[in-house]
Design a protein that fits this description.
With 467 residues, the protein is an alpha/beta fold. The chain is 30% helix and 21% strand. It has twelve helices and 20 strands. Bound molecules: dihydropyrimidine-2,4(1H,3H)-dione and zinc ion (ZN) (2 copies).
Length: 467
């Protein structure tokens, strides 16, 4: 048998193993793993490199409508190029239902935006903001059957929040359809109360965004969501956990045998609320929700990562331009933190940060890195065993990493649509030097050499974790 591509001389890492072997790829799939694979049409020399599953980023926002006059900085072309440059081969953005709109129509609109634009594969979660009887009774069940097997709901934000009754109704549909429900756990009323009190006191700078959403607000909402999930008896994913308080709620639920899963993100192991205290409006660059906490919280997140409380490590990439009137420095943002768009770019830096802070600093093994960055995302969201590991029959989604390469994260080397990175000057050890998506080399040495439109829009099976 001959192969289209062979990756030779590298060390393969999966969520369970690390060993020296070659890989032969036929078409879009891995056809053989052997001590030696020769005679392929093309070879890549991976001597000295780690050969890992391409990253799967299961929490990103792309081309999502924001408030009036605010625009996300990435479309599907720039987001997927940036993801590929960061060692990823698949992303999972959200198709947001705006209130008063059909959920099905929202999905079709996003698909149209993504089609012919993606460098790597893309698969949508839904965001349910308007759970009408038609959405709950017809649209949602039909969409789950069509392969949209996960959806997010919010416990805060004027235009997204669901009340407790609505959360329960959505959870009930998730249970019946075996879909995985993802929950943004921060309390609407408590944030509103804090925001208005701070504004009355003239405390309006970006830093007060963090003060308006303390850990106790995230902890209360996390506990409430867990309680609702227990009542309905449905599995649930707590997204973007920021610190000890919420992490301990998840651990408590898991210890009681509940199917409660959790995700965390690079900002919660590297940034703190102090980053929001930059001069003038510089702090706006770090405004995201939940906000970064403190170094003790970072320790708690590592505890959760190493103890298995967290299944996935995602970017929550939600990019805005800083120096732009439709971004962080929109005219109203100077009047109060409440108008600073919520979110930071991170699709390209997620994996180098986890590798460097985790593997290079000895906190986690390379296998655990693979589990947190790829394998569990595929299992959690119904892409396994097509994606998420290196094995015969899997899509040839592979990232080659130089574990010793030192790099300084800088805006000028990134491919996203934002005009800054929160990690400017952050030093890492370990860097992705090539990305192969379904057998095709899409990134080499930081250059995107893939084709726009190569990435497919994928439907998914039911989550292994959702039943
Ligand atoms: N939640 C997210 O998941 N992303 C950005 C903003 C937010 O509140
Ligand atoms: Zn959220
Ligand atoms: Zn998000």
């Amino acid at each position: 048998m001959t192969y289209d591509l062979a990756i030779r001389g590298g060390t393969i890492v999966t969520a369970t193993d690390m060993y020296r072997a070659d890989i032969g790829i036929s078409g879009e799939r891995i056809a053989i793993i052997a001590e030696e694979v020769s005679g392929a049409a093309r070879e890549i020399d991976a001597t000295g490199l780690l050969v890992m599953p391409g990253g799967i980023d299961s929490h990103v926002h792309v081309s999502q409508p924001q408030g009036l006059g605010i625009t996300l900085a990435d479309d599907f072309a720039s987001a997927t190029a940036s993801a590929a440059a960061g060692g990823n081969t698949c992303i999972m953005p959200f198709a947001l239902q705006q209130r008063g709109h059909s959920l099905r129509q929202s999905v079709e609109d996003y698909k149209r935006l993504a089609e012919s634009e993606c460098y790597i594969d893309t698969s949508f979660h839904l965001i349910v903001s308007d759970p009408t009887p038609a959405v709950l009774g017809q649209e949602l069940p039909a969409l789950v059957k069509d392969g949209y097997t996960s959806f997010k709901v919010f416990m805060t934000y004027d235009d997204l929040v669901l009340n407790d009754r609505q959360l329960l109704e959505v959870f009930d549909v998730a249970r019946a359809e075996k879909a995985l429900v993802m929950v943004h756990c921060e309390g609407y009323d408590t944030i509103k109360f804090m925001t208005e009190r701070l504004e009355r006191a003239g405390k309006t700078e970006p830093y007060y965004h963090a003060v308006s959403r303390p850990e106790v607000i995230e902890r209360e909402a996390t506990h409430r969501a867990i309680s609702h999930a227990e009542l309905i008896d449905v599995p649930m994913m707590v997204v973007h956990v920021s610190g000890r308080e919420a992490m301990e709620q998840v651990r408590w639920a898991q210890q009681r045998g509940l199917k409660v899963y959790a995700e965390t993100c690079p900002q919660y192991i590297t940034l703190t609320a102090e980053d929001l205290q930059g001069l003038n409006m510089e702090g706006a660059k770090y405004v995201c929700s939940p906000p970064p906490r403190d170094t003790e919280s970072q320790k708690a997140i590592w505890e959760g990562l190493t103890q298995g409380v967290f299944q996935t490590f995602s970017s929550d990439h939600c990019p805005f331009r800083y120096d732009a009137t439709d971004g962080k420095l929109n005219p109203k943002a100077r009047t109060s933190f409440r108008w600073v768009p919520n979110g930071i770019p991170g699709i390209e830096t997620r994996l180098p940060i986890l590798f460097s802070e985790g593997v290079s600093k000895g906190r986690i093994t390379a296998q655990k890195f693979v589990e947190l960055s790829a394998t569990n995302h595929a299992k959690m969201y119904g892409l396994y065993p097509k994606k998420g590991s290196i094995g015969v029959g899997f899509d040839a989604d592979i990232a080659l990493w130089d574990p010793n390469r030192k790099e300084t994260i800088r805006q000028e080397i990134l491919h996203h649509g934002s005009d800054y990175t929160p990690w400017e000057g952050f030093e890492v050890t370990g860097w992705p030097v090539a990305t192969i998506a379904r057998g095709k080399l899409v990134m080499q040495d930081g250059d995107i050499i893939g084709d726009k439109g190569f990435g497919q829009i994928l439907s998914r099976s039911a989550s292994q974790y959702a039943s």
